[in-house]
Give the backbone structure.
Amino acid sequence: MQSKIEAEELVRQRFAALEAQDFAALYASYHPQSPFLEQFPSLEAYLDFAAQALAKLKLSATSIGAARETEEGIELICGLSFELAGESQTLYELALLMQAEEGWRYHSAQKLSAEDYSGEFAALDFSHFDQQATKIRF
């Protein structure tokens, strides 16, 4: 139970960092084996990207739903509504959090867009992610 609470706290910290545009804190929350770090192997590379692609992002709502333990760690269902470039978007993710030396860290997530799932966040469950034909995690 404590692990679930700690994993949820990491996701809350990530949401807060995104809202505050603290991209260094967001970067630091990734697990050392995250595919994200293959794309952005240095903080500087990510900060350059974030300054261009994420600086105008405005969060409007975040949600954390159900959790389940897996062999790798803990999966959490999360929701994120935001505005970017004048367009409102909602993304849902099945986030995988794994233990690292520093504690829980964000490894990757399977994403669903509003086109993939159009219901209320409260009704979103693991089956919506599990039934996707292609389960891309990034």
Notes: DSSP finds five helices and four strands in the chain. The two ends are 26 Å apart (CA to CA). The chain has a mean pLDDT of 93.
